[in-house]
Design goal:
The chain is of the alpha+beta class and about 240 residues long. It has 8 helices and 10 strands.
């Protein structure tokens, strides 16, 4: 039976993990286990989750940014009591146009986060960025009941996004973007809808290569002069 108590911050994750450990310790005492040993086991899991993921963000030696988006606790009632499990949703990125997400399930919080991080690293995608700070064009994404809209923004706008979507753009390396999410607040659906919108992002360079034209030819169609189109095409990195 799924527990409706969801966890948003790693500090609360520690408390929930410790609670699960104490429940298992009580179950062990009923069967003749050691009381002190059961408490120490539960406390160790709680402290491990807080030390490993303090702040919900961790940067590894290879430059990959990891963000813990959501933790969900489920419990199963068995003969000796309740058996707890945890599901983690993690977003990773290099801050330079690559991002991915993954989820993992385990009996303990740190192990679930480790599984989710490994899954996210295997599914990273490349998203072209304009001037290394924003998206090239607007886009829409959808997954299930979740609908998101992402829009490019001028310098100084910042990341106007909430919840799971903010973690995606911070890991991606986007500095200016405006987003809107409607239809659901489920973090899993919001993340998948966001990735659906990001997967449709294209750059002028890729479009020009696909059509066999120059980037300046595409940029000069909006009434801009040839010199302006050439300068803008030279400024495009991706």
């Amino acid at each position: 039976m799924a527990d409706e108590n969801t966890i948003e911050t790693p500090d609360v994750v520690t408390d929930v993990a410790a609670e699960g450990g104490e429940a298992q310790g009580r179950r062990g005492r009923g069967r003749g286990g050691n009381r002190d040993g059961g408490n120490r086991e539960g406390g160790g899991r709680g402290r491990g989750g807080r030390d490993d993921r303090r702040g919900g963000k961790q940067e590894e030696d290879d430059g990959i940014i990891e963000k813990l988006v959501h933790i969900n606790r489920v419990s199963k009632t068995v003969k000796g009591g309740k058996r707890f499990g945890f599901a983690a949703l993690v977003v990773v990125g290099d801050g330079q146009g690559r991002v991915g997400f993954g989820h993992g399930k385990a009996r303990e919080v740190p192990e679930a986060i480790t599984k989710a991080t490994a899954a996210a690293r295997k599914k990273m995608i490349r998203v072209p960025l304009k001037e290394g700070r924003t998206l090239h064009h607007d886009g829409n994404g959808r997954f299930g009941a979740g609908k998101v809209t992402v829009r490019s923004a001028p310098p100084g706008t910042g990341i106007i996004a909430g919840g799971p979507m903010r973690a995606v753009f911070e890991s991606l390396g986007v500095a200016d973007v405006v987003t809107k999410s409607v239809g659901t607040s489920n973090p899993y659906n919001m993340i998948r809808a966001t990735f659906d919108a990001l997967s449709e992002q294209t750059s002028p360079k890729s479009v020009a290569q696909r059509r066999g034209k120059k980037v300046a030819d595409l940029l000069g169609r909006g009434g801009a002069s040839a010199a302006e189109a050439e300068a803008e095409a030279a400024a495009i990195v991706e």
